[in-house]
Amino acid sequence: MILWFGKKKKQDEAKAAGAAMDAPELSADEMAARDAEIAAKEAEKAEIERVVAEANKAWEDRQAREASEAASESARLEEEARKADAARAEALARADAEEAKRLEAEADAARRAREEREIARAKAAAELKILEDRREAVRLREEREAAARAALEAEANDPGFVAKLGSGLARSSSRLGSGLAAFNKRKLDDETLEDLEDLLITSDLGAAVARRVTKNLSKERFDREITENEIKQALATEIEDVLAPREKIVDFSDGPRPRVVLFVGVNGSGKTTTIGKIASKLKDQGAKALLVAGDTFRAAAIEQLTVWGDRAGIPVMSKPTGADAAGLVYEAIERAREEDLDLVLVDTAGRLQNKAELMAELAKVVRVIRKMDPEAPHDVILVLDATVGQNALSQVEAFRHTAGVTGLVMTKLDGTAKGGVLVAIAEAHDLPIHFIGVGEGADDLRPFSAHAFSQALVGAID
């Protein structure tokens, strides 16, 4: 602030001193000059006061402005600080939230991982248990199958049965054996091999088997002298090689339930008797079976199957003579399902393979069965009569085409000279041979053994 009060004090003192002096006499001009001077001084004073007032006001305005600006700046800075504090707080809160979210996500991930590990562990344990159960089931099944195979092989190679087989095939082996006797001590040259091939063909072994046997014999023994026993053993070995791939023990306990087994064949082949024998064996082994008298054309067939059923304690389903066989089979399968039976063994009418209408009726039975179960019949077993010789080959071809044959049974090998046809069938058709029969009794139907059969056929029982 500008200080004027010292100057004003001196002025006042001068005025007081002048007032004490005697006022001189002044002229009019002097008076006017004095007044003008006084007026000028007053004006100057007023101007000075105005300038001072303006300067003071300007200073005050500047001070007020600076104070306002300072207040505004302070408010701005305070607002910025508040905003910065808020931003920092928000950032911290956001960071805390994000951290909390991250930690929660990590906790969730850890929890999920733990749950997944637990699920994986439980799944692995379950899979391991299933695998162990399967292994145990496979082991038990293999044990059962091995025991069953051993039992069936023992049954097939039972010395008593083998002897009976040899006796049953006596006419076949005698016919072949008497022919082989002529080769004793003969040199195995081209002429001898040709004669041997003719003998094998006339013994119903078939041309293909005869050529195979003589070809293999010539590789090892050509131009060498051979005894009757040597040629029998060599022939038995060759025949066994043909038959062994067809040797198959059928396990009726395997597969779906009820297992539908269809027996087909020509008149007089022994179908009904074969079914009765098989049913009797299965009943002894604990199977729950149903016999179906599907041969509705012959009353004797129905009666015969009923006798076997009564003897074995197995129910038999039948209808009056002339009834629809396909309808009977349909009802039998429904009954087996309702009663939870293991097997449905179906006898069918005997028919010649060259009778188209009868073969068409058999095809209808198969179609009806497949409507109930697309996989059925699960077995179609063709029963062949050994006494028909080479005609059995055409039977296999016809029934295989019509009914989808899955396996063979050859009956009546006892007392026939045509047992060698089984070898020809095995060479011509890739079908398993399940059973052979050498008599009327239940024990006369046994599982097929390639070794026992080949030895018995050539009369070289070992």
TrEMBL record:
Its EC number is 3.6.5.4. SMART domains: AAA, SRP54, SRP54_N. Involved in targeting and insertion of nascent membrane proteins into the cytoplasmic membrane. Acts as a receptor for the complex formed by the signal recognition particle (SRP) and the ribosome-nascent chain (RNC). Interaction with SRP-RNC leads to the transfer of the RNC complex to the Sec translocase for insertion into the membrane, the hydrolysis of GTP by both Ffh and FtsY, and the dissociation of the SRP-FtsY complex into the individual components. The keyword Ion transport does not apply. One of its GO terms (cellular component) is cytoplasm. It comes from the Bacteria. It is an enzyme of class 3 (hydrolase). InterPro entries: AAA+_ATPase, P-loop_NTPase, Signal_recog_particl_SRP54_hlx, SR_rcpt_FtsY, SRP/SRP_N, SRP54_GTPase_dom, SRP54_N_sf. This is Signal recognition particle receptor FtsY. Belongs to the GTP-binding SRP family. FtsY subfamily. GTP binds at residues 265-272, 347-351, 411-414. It is a peripheral membrane protein. The keyword Cytoplasm applies. It catalyses: GTP + H2O = GDP + phosphate + H(+). One of its GO terms (biological process) is SRP-dependent cotranslational protein targeting to membrane. Its main location: membrane. SUPFAM superfamilies: Domain of the SRP/SRP receptor G-proteins, P-loop containing nucleoside triphosphate hydrolases. Residues 59-68, 75-102 have a biased composition (Basic and acidic residues). Residues 1-24, 59-102 are annotated as: Disordered. Keywords: Cell membrane, Cytoplasm, GTP-binding, Hydrolase, Membrane, Nucleotide-binding, Receptor. Residues 432-445 form the SRP54-type proteins GTP-binding domain. GO terms for molecular function: GTP binding; GTPase activity; signal recognition particle binding. Part of the signal recognition particle protein translocation system, which is composed of SRP and FtsY. SRP is a ribonucleoprotein composed of Ffh and a 4.5S RNA molecule.
